[in-house]
Amino acid sequence: xxxxxxxxxxxxxxxxLFERGLTPGSSGNISVRLxxxxxxxxxxxxxxxxxxxxxxxxxxxxxxxxxxxxPTKEVxxxxxxxxxxxxxxxxxxxxxxxxxxxxxxxxxDPRAALPAMTAYYVMKCGQxxxxxxxxxxxxxxxxxxxxxxxxxxxVLLANHGPVVSGDTLEAAVxxxxxxxxxAKLYLLLxxxxxxxxxxxxxxxxxxxxxLVLPDHSH
Length: 218
Hints:
One of its GO terms (biological process) is pentose catabolic process. Residues 8-187 form the Class II aldolase/adducin N-terminal domain. Its EC number is 4.1.1.104. Its cofactor is Zn(2+). Keywords: Carbohydrate metabolism, Lyase, Metal-binding, Zinc. It is a single chain. The protein is α+β, with helices and mostly antiparallel strands. Strands 4-3-2-1-5-8-7-6 form an eight-stranded mixed sheet, sandwiched between helices. The chain has one domain: Class II aldolase/adducin N-terminal domain (L-fuculose-1-phosphate Aldolase). Helix 5 links the parallel strand 6 and strand 7. The chain is 37% helix and 15% strand. The chain is built from seven helices and eight strands, in the order αββββαβααβαββαα. Helix 2 (75-84) runs parallel beside helix 5 (140-146), helix 3 crosses helix 6 and helix 4 (119-125) packs across helix 6 (169-189).
């Protein structure tokens, strides 16, 4: 896919996410890996609803700015996912309400922030890790994500929001949306003893769709 088309797609998906209230104001950022090893990322203080494809930040493989506006301060977390997940072709970071709320609950397991609530959550997100709070732009968040050793495509930043990778921009956006909807379901059903997918049902999904889930056996 051409770089011009990727720039347009970032703007198109960003506007869709913004218009549906999934990331307010100038929050959130999107990046896409390019064939030459560099990547495109949304600029700092840019609203995802009003992006200009010509002003997108173009970075080299080491995250250094080559052209365009200054990049988002969240470059470290995008870099961490690209460096630890070779399959990552795009990364989406939002401040979506239900995912942020989930990240603040005391009972959340850092290794699996959500139970297997629906088939599509398992298929699109696998499992979701929770990393501790760091201020936005703190390089320490990259260290925390690298500590997950590439096992997770879906990560929640405590008191901040989700960061999700996918093999394409579309896949990353859809997985982020699925995470947000599943977080909403969890909050709606919290305390009501809902029925989750059984280990056998998760194993069936894993076999059928060739999923690779984090190994918690140790």
